[in-house]
Amino acid sequence: MPSSAMPATGRPVDGHAPLAISATRLRKSYGDKLVLDGIDLHIPAGSVFALLGPNGAGKTTAVKILSTLIAADPGSGALHVGGHDLAVDPQAVRAAIGVTGQFSAVDNLITGEENMLLMADLHHLPRREGRRVAAELLERFDLVEAASKPASTYSGGMKRRLDIAMTLVGNPRIIFLDEPTTGLDPRSRHNMWAIIRGLVADGVTVLLTTQYLEEADELADRIAVLSDGRIAAEGSAEELKRIVPGGHIRLRFTDPAAYRHAALALGEFGRHDESLSLQAPCDGSQRELRSLLDQLDAVGIEADELTVHTPDLDDVFFALTGTGTGTGTGTGSGTGTGTGTRLPDQQTKETVR
Ligand SMILES: Nc1ncnc2c1ncn2[C@@H]1O[C@H](COP(=O)(O)OP(=O)(O)OP(=O)(O)O)[C@@H](O)[C@H]1O
Ligand SMILES: [Mg+2]
């Protein structure tokens, strides 16, 4: 949905979901360092939006502003969260949201249950209600056994679960998760994804930041890539993958003679003499793959290894943020997603002769 079709007030347009979060020309500088250079975010209610970007891109800064912890610069446009104007009614915004910061809010000196009850007090829940909510969340986050132990004894994954459970005490309809799975092992990360999906199934809106492109791919309806204070691209994972040049097939040989024969037979392929590999653009379809294998069969050659690479979010990230070398081989320049994004010129990708 083009962002221009959505108002900043949180009202639905043309039957679309209302906006849970909307920011226009969001700006923030620290001294003479410009961190956010007028970004626009329009996040429909009940969706997951991922903010991706390298270290220092301004993800936490955006989360802090939208959750009222710090102020945007004057000159920013309208900022609405949960239908409330941040500049006019920050208290109403606070009542509508939950925030799990990049760094844990868990108090290590008290137990998990005491942390939960502290949050219930902060939300002014009546004592009995606070105990009920705490018990229910501890159960839901698989922390019943650990509930009476000091949080200092929890593993990183348990602490992160407690952190999010604490965020949910006030039953917020919009939650900010700043790098919810950083430092978690793969199983804990998958558990956290299940928790986030559960929240979304309940109609909660989630704005998450992440360093893990796979995480954005798994969870997010829309993804924005922050780079140099601006949104370099925004779209669904599929839309973003389309802006980097395509996939390829790579064939590797151990026998130099077979490699040379294959290179001759397949003429137009990219050669990489050192690794005895050949590479060609491919959309990953069965048809293209079959055609290639048929050509090899025709000259009686078999590759020792065949890999099909389709573009992933890593490719998008590297292409848009210019932070390193991806695993892909794109060489062309892409055109935009629905937002009209263009790839910057500085693609830093492995190229093969
Ligand atoms: N209070 C502050 N004073 C001065 N500079 C700050 C302050 N907070 C953040 N910055 C700077 O703003 C930039 C953006 O920081 P931010 O924490 O938003 O990045 P981030 O995208 O969350 O990075 P990371 O992935 O490392 O968490 C960085 O250059 C940081 O040094
Ligand atoms: Mg951060």
Automatic annotation (TrEMBL):
Residues 324-353 are annotated as: Disordered. It is a peripheral membrane protein. It holds the Pfam family ABC_tran. Residues 21-253 form the ABC transporter domain. It comes from the Bacteria. SMART domains: AAA. Residues 324-339 have a biased composition (Gly residues). Its main location: membrane. InterPro entries: AAA+_ATPase, ABC_transporter-like_ATP-bd, ABC_transporter-like_CS, ABC_transporter_ATP-binding, P-loop_NTPase. It is found in: Cell membrane. Keywords: Antibiotic resistance, ATP-binding, Nucleotide-binding, Transport. This is ATP-binding cassette domain-containing protein. The lineage of its organism: Bacteria, Bacillati, Actinomycetota, Actinomycetes, Kitasatosporales.
